[in-house]
Write a structure and sequence with these properties.
heterodimer; A: 490 residues; alpha+beta; Beta-Lactamase; 4 domains; 5-stranded mixed sheet; B: 286 residues; alpha/beta; D-Maltodextrin-Binding Protein, domain 2; 2 domains; 7-stranded mixed sheet; 14 strands
Chain lengths: 490, 286
């Protein structure tokens, strides 16, 4: 697996682990809050139920207080509308919208909420009939055209003799519903065959349940009070927070992975370039010089300091390797005494020239040998012999062209390879060399030094041995002809 | 010197003869308003008589009656019913004057009337046509809103509690008007003043089905404490109150009464009221 993949995978795994932990935490928090939310709603529902029961109780209490008043009894008996109005007005409140006094025929004697509206017949009203039939009625019925919670009771003189009826009512309207849910987060709805009311703007309540009320069945069909939530705003906020958290973490995860991807790409690519150069070098696809060139290029290209430093270090190392290689190469192809190319180098060069000649080039070679060198060594010692060799090499080196290759073939024998040179040219060069040596006066060797030279030029199908043999034959002939001569192949 | 002594003696005699009278009034309205309304009258009487008139507002009618009987008050302002009852119980009670009012009808009279009124659009034009309808009195204690109305029914041999489908009591005259306008009742009893007020407010929308005999207005009486001569002297002073006197203005300002002073009538002027007391009481209390 690539380094990139490894880093990306490991880091992503860690982030995902954090994400899962976060999800777990927020989910736990959400569940705790949801439980508290449900508990609160339950308490609120009970509170509203209690308030409703208090309203009903208030209606009954008001009626009881009034019918226990002697003045009310007198008012009923004497049809004293004003007295009954004055009394009932005192008891009108937010919990009591209507107080009506009727005689046993159902004629209204007084309305607490409307001083001058009386004398009408309400005997056909369900709540009146129920009161006449069962003594009391507590339920929902239409009072003066409005749906109300109504409590009706027969009024009895001395607690025995029925003389009239009282009805105490609370109009079921938006205000009433609002008073029940005031200070809570719940909503209350009332639905009957005639009307639908709700404290909520929304038509349907969430988690709605019917209030359980001890009401007698009235004339209004299907009258129900439902309690529920208008909206799960609080829970929704919690859900939203949870979702936001999830989305936030997911987004952060994606961003992190993308950022990681690009960061890894950027850094690893730079490392990869350097690594690829080293791999290519190791697998011989690049030599050290190409390695140096590539690294040098990378140094200019890289922006990261660390990578740049690594590239620079590699560059220096490659440079040193190259220098060492050059030095070794030079050492392996150079004659230690004369500093000319040694025989191995000459053979390589000759091989190369032969290959080039096969593609149409041409060349010539000159085999040179210092005459009677053994005598110099024997007479003047090896030091002088070496001296002669060194200076002879230097003199020849000074004469030849830059493109020519001069090397020590062995002992006092030298080989000169002349690229792009025919036989005539080679003979001229050989003569110049012979002449140069011949006329040179050595510092530590008093005798004249001469050289014999054999010249051969390339022929098609030549091998190193064949051309060298021809040059060697020419040299042999020069030696045999008295030395200090230039001979060429036949 | 002798002349000076003579005038000084006269002054001293006058001071020695000056009396302090207690003038009592029943609480027909807010006591503070009654005091404010009657103070100019007290001042007038004090100035004109040379005596001192002190105003007392009793707690209620009973206290007023009791104090007249006890003779702890010298003069009293009483309504017609109380005058008749008091006179029966205390024949020595002296009638002085009757209150005069600028009636809403435009007349200055010492009396007013009770009307039985129906809305025009009910098409009830006579009392007989109102059978089986809803009727409202004001108050059983009311002179015009009950007693004289009952006299009308008596004259026509009508028992309102059976004649009408139902009879209500609304306490105040103007409430009868409002109940009529709200169509709660078809007809009701009210004073002529209330009727004229209702006309002013709602226009010519009412029919007067019946009108009572004149109902004497309140009277000022004197107890036995006050001599006949003194009674006559004070009567004269009360009769002579100018129309634009501060006392009349104070009545209007504080009580809303369009007072025109006082007039001395015959005691028999109140005899019609005695008739109302003989009208059968159709108790509804069972």
């Amino acid at each position: 697996m690539k380094l990139y993949n490894k880093i990306l995978l490991l880091t992503t795994l860690q982030i995902v682990a954090i994400f899962i932990f976060g999800i777990y935490q927020i989910q736990s928090l959400y569940l705790t809050q949801k439980k508290a939310f449900d508990q609160k709603n339950l308490i609120q529902t009970e509170m509203i139920q209690k308030r409703f029961e208090e309203k009903l109780s208030e209606l009954q209490k008001t009626a009881r207080i009034l019918i226990n008043s002697q003045e009310v009894i007198t008012g009923i008996l004497s049809n004293d509308t004003d007295m009954l109005y004055t009394w009932s007005k005192l008891f009108l409140s937010s919990s009591t919208d209507k107080i009506h006094f009727m005689d046993l025929e159902g004629t209204v004697i007084s309305r607490g909420e409307a001083e001058f509206r009386f004398a009408d017949d309400v005997s056909k009203q369900f709540y009146i009939q129920q009161a006449l039939l069962n003594n009391t009625f507590l339920g929902i019925d239409r009072v003066d055209g409005k749906e109300c919670l109504v409590y009706t009771e027969r009024i009895k003189q001395y607690g025995e003799k029925p003389i009239g009826i009282i009805s105490v009512a609370l109009v079921i309207d938006h205000e009433f519903l609002s008073s029940l849910v005031e200070g809570t987060t719940m909503s209350l709805a009332y639905q009957s065959e005639h009307q639908t009311l709700s404290t909520a703007k929304e038509k349907t309540l969430i988690n709605a349940s019917a209030l359980s009320l001890m009401l007698q069945t009235g004339s209004i069909k299907d009258a129900t009070f439902s309690i529920g939530l208008t909206s799960e705003k609080e829970l929704f906020a919690l859900k939203e927070a949870r979702t936001n958290f999830f989305l936030g973490i997911a987004l952060a995860l994606i961003v992190l992975v993308i950022a990681l991807h690009f960061t890894l790409l950027k850094y690893l690519k730079e490392y990869e370039i350097l690594a690829q150069v080293l791999i290519d070098f190791y697998e011989d696809r690049l030599d050290i010089k190409e390695v140096i060139a590539k690294i040098k290029h990378a140094i200019h290209k890289q922006t990261t300091t660390e990578v740049k430093k690594i590239a620079e270090a590699l560059f220096n190392m490659s440079q040193k390797v190259s220098d060492t290689q050059n030095a070794l190469e030079l050492l392996s192809s150079t004659d230690q005494l004369t500093t000319l190319a040694n025989r191995r180098k000459l053979e390589e060069y000759l091989e190369q020239k032969l290959k080039e000649a096969n593609r149409g080039n041409f060349f010539s070679i000159v085999m040179l040998d210092i005459d009677r060198f053994k005598t110099i060594n024997d007479t003047y010692g090896h030091e002088i012999g070496d001296h002669v060799l060194i200076h002879t090499a230097n003199l020849m080196q000074a004469v030849i062209r830059e493109s020519d290759m001069l090397g020590r073939w062995g002992g006092e024998e030298f080989l000169l390879i002349l690229p792009q040179t025919n036989l005539e040219g080679a003979l001229v060069m050989a003569e110049q060399l012979r002449s140069k040596i011949y006329h040179y006066e050595f510092e530590h060797y008093p005798q004249r030094v001469t050289m014999s030279l054999g010249v051969a030029t390339y022929r098609i199908g030549d091998t190193p041995n064949s051309i060298l043999r021809r040059a060697d034959h020419a040299l042999y002939r020069a030696k045999n002809d008295g030395r200090n001569k230039v001979e060429y192949e036949n | 010197m002798l002349v000076k002594l003579f005038f000084l003696s006269l002054l001293l005699l006058n001071v020695l003869h000056a009396k302090e009278y207690i003038f009592a009034m029943y609480p027909s309205n807010n006591p503070t308003k009654i005091v404010q309304a009657l103070t100019p009258l007290m001042k007038y009487l004090s100035e004109q008589s040379g005596d001192t008139f002190k105003l007392v507002v009793t707690k209620d009618y009973d206290e007023l009656t009791q104090r007249i009987e006890e003779k702890s008050v010298d003069f009293a302002w009483v309504n017609s019913k109380n005058f008749v009852l008091l006179k029966e119980r205390n024949p020595s009670l002296r009638y002085l004057v009757t209150y005069l009012e600028n009636s809403k009808s435009g007349q200055i009279t010492p009396y007013y009337k009770s009307f039985i009124v129906a809305l025009k659009d009910t098409n009830i034009t006579t009392l007989e046509e109102a059978k089986g309808k809803h009727f409202a009195f004001t108050d059983k204690e009311s002179t015009s809103g009950y007693a004289y109305t009952m006299m009308i029914f008596e004259d026509r041999h009508i028992n309102p509690y059976t004649f009408f489908q139902k009879v209500f009591f609304l306490k105040k005259h103007d409430k009868v008007t409002e109940a009529l306008m709200n169509r709660s009742i078809e007809l009701g009893a009210m004073s002529d003043g209330t009727y004229y007020n209702a006309r002013a407010k709602y226009g010519d929308t009412f029919n007067i089905l019946a009108s009572s005999a004149p109902i004497p207005l309140d009277a000022i009486v004197a107890s036995e404490n006050v001599s006949i001569a003194e009674s006559q002297r004070i009567t004269k002073l009360l009769e002579n109150i100018p129309k634009d006197a501060p006392s009349n203005k104070a009545f209007e300002e504080h009580l809303g009464w369009l007072s025109a002073g006082f007039v001395k009538k015959d005691e028999h002027f109140y005899d019609t009221f005695k008739k109302t007391l003989k009208v059968p009481i159709y108790e509804t209390l069972q």
